[in-house]
Write a structure and sequence with these properties.
mainly beta, 8 strands, 1 helix, eight-stranded antiparallel β-barrel, elongated
Length: 221
Amino acid sequence: TTALAGLGMFAQAANAADLAPPTPRVAYPTKAPEYRAYDWTGFYAGINGGYGWGRSSWDGFGSGNFNTSGSMLGGTIGYNWQGMGSPFVFGLEGDVDWANIRGSFANAACAGGCETKSSWLATVRGRLGYSLDRVMPYITGGLAVGDIQANRVGFSGMSDTRAGWTIGGGIEGAIVDRWTAKVEYLYTDLGSSNCSAAARGIATNVSSRNNILRAGLNYRF
């Protein structure tokens, strides 16, 4: 009898142990992934396109300033450098664009019409940007090189490559992976080119000054 009672008590104790709640697991906090600000340093290349509008004049023909306008499309290469922990981004950028910027006038001195045209434009510019993480506003300026074409109806034309200057600004943003997109404005002044050949010996200078608004898509290497 005593043995049976002992076995019963042992069975009850075993059942009680089986019914005991499991020991709760301790949840240890996990470390959040470290956030890294966008780094603009490196080479990049891309495409750009936009629209140009401006003013030209033929001073020997009393043309005054007349309007020019047209589209542009080209390619871009550049390099950015951003110091560690600094929001300032220093860069050098170059581009070459096909252009179809043109305008014309007609008056008593040029009854058939006289036209100024630019068929290409290249720039080499410094850039200074301020990084707001994945967005960077910037200012830019430097050398502009392009052609000034002067055409008078009924006479031989003239094309001259001119070097001038450009200044402007824009904003660029990282969109996905290594791709960035930008919108920028540039003012370019190619000065004046002597156009006596196109004007049949009449001394005249043809000027070209343009505003450029364009968008670009770049890939960072």
